[in-house]
Description:
The structure holds 2 protein chains of 2 kinds. By secondary structure, chain A is of the alpha/beta class. Chain A is built from 3 helices and 5 strands; from the N terminus they run ββαβαβαβ. Chain A is 37% helix and 37% strand. In chain B, 29% of the residues are buried. Helices cover 47% and strands 20% of the residues of chain B.
Amino acid sequence: MLKIDKTAEGEKVTLTLEGRLDISAAPQLEAELKRAMEHTTELIFDLEKLDYISSAGLRVLLLAQKQMNKQGRMRLIHVGETVMETLEITGFVDIFFIVE
Amino acid sequence: MKKSTRHSLSRRVTLIQLALMITMVAILAVSSYMVFRRTYLRFYNQKGQDIVRIVAAQTDWEQLEHFAETGEPDSYSESLTEFYNSVKMNFTGVGYLYLFVPGETSFTYLIEAQTPEDDPEWVAHWGDIFEYTSYEYEKLLPDVRAGKPSTEIMFMETALGAGIETWAPVFDASGNVRAMVEADYELTDLEKEIDAFVLRIVLFILLCTLVFLTVMFLYMRRSIVQPIVRLNASVDSYEHGDFDLQLEKFRTDDELRNLAVSFTDMTRRIDAYTEEVARATEEQGRISAEYNVAKQIQTDILPSEFPAFPERRDFDIYASLYSSREICGDYYDFFLIDEDHLAMVLGDVSGKGVPAAMFMVIVKTLIKNRALQGFSPAEVLQNVSEQLVEGNNAGMYATVWLAVLELSTGKGMAANAGAEHPVLRRAGKRFELQEYRHSPPVGAMEGVRFRDHGFQLEPGDTLFVYTDGVKEPRNKREETFGTAGILEALNREPEATPSVLLQTMKTTIDSFTGEAIQADDITMLSLKYYGTAKPSDEWK
Lengths: 100, 540
């Protein structure tokens, strides 16, 4: 189960993810992102309450990163220990801009 | 069986109608019998009363008094008797017509009318005295005292027959009641007449009913039962594959036609749906067949003959891939770059299905080609990643662990592009995770850097690498196997050969997950390095 909370201020959108971002939740986030990224120059993922991220979830974040590279920037904030470990193992720490 | 059910509907409806009709006819017969009887009685009562009133009015007591008292006939009494006789003769149904003097308990005859048909024995004469019947006593005397004619219907039934009695008083000049005229109307045949009349009515109604029922039955068969039977037969034939309701035969625009129309629509939709399902099933079968081929390709391109290098004594390598039901895009690979350099690869493509399998084949081919040219692992991955990023809009990427080992010295170089932490066991020690900085997955993003990580293997060391399918199985209690599970399984028999290690790992995972379905490919590779301390056949 994944809960997505979206707050937008002008061209800045924050998506707060809560729960598990796995293969069953990935399409839900992908659909949400499609809307969230329109006319957005700054995309922020708040991952404080994200417990788990699978490779399918990483792919969605990767696609968002690729899109945001064209139209602005993307950041991950409040990354928890478990998710951070996954990001380190998978090497995505080199791809995402993670705010400590 | 079929035949009896076919017409049971019309038969049942007709029977119900017949029952209703019979009940109706019975009610009609009883009520008409009662109505006619009353009408008859009232009619004859009225007729009798008219007669006695006329006769009483014609009887002049002043002229008759002499005859009444003496019994000696005179001209008046004779003409009056003639009058009485002619009245009786001309009014059919009048059984008795007589004049009498009412007493307290009996009455005295003065004149009784006589016709040629009458038996003279039965005719009373002047001075004959009769007792009142209890009925006369009760009904007649009050009228005598009140000086009025009979009003209510007095219907009498005796052994001799049935009749209506009517009477009217005869007054003298001073208005006193001196005598009474009574007429008895014979109604012996009345019951028979009424019965005959009612019977005629009943027969007529029955006839009408039969005609009506026949028409009704025929109409129902044509416009209700036959359409239903046709519907029924069509449904039966639909089971056998053909269906034609012949809508044009439903002539009337009623509920049955609507039913037939919606039924036809429904069967059309069922047919369309069935066809669609058949097509989808066929399509599914085709896709599933292609899917299986893709899965087969995925496993076929992996080196699968073990021992892989039977002539080599300086190392032992073993790898296995247990695929899940879906295609997950895992792969392993190993090959000699030259006599002294062994390349080992373990990869996992993001996503699932045929696209993942295709991507995996590309990744495998590119890596092997580049590695065979003698580049370092990081250089290989750098090159492969750049090739994969181009035109990769689906966001597919692969995590890869690539190592090249110099067999003569044990010096190794590895690049970990987002793969799991390798596990290493130093000779005589325990298996431990090797944690160092990973590079991003290949194909994920342009412009990323890949790092080489140098390592040194000593004779007797064992290396174990795996994909996330080994680390992430979950059991029913939602617990994850994890690196702890991996290390525990490996350390149970740390001296084991790579093939035994991998089999132990698989059985450990299976008993951990129980009956849960394997969600991801389980891919593992293990290398035991002997180096120059080549084990002899006896040692093995």
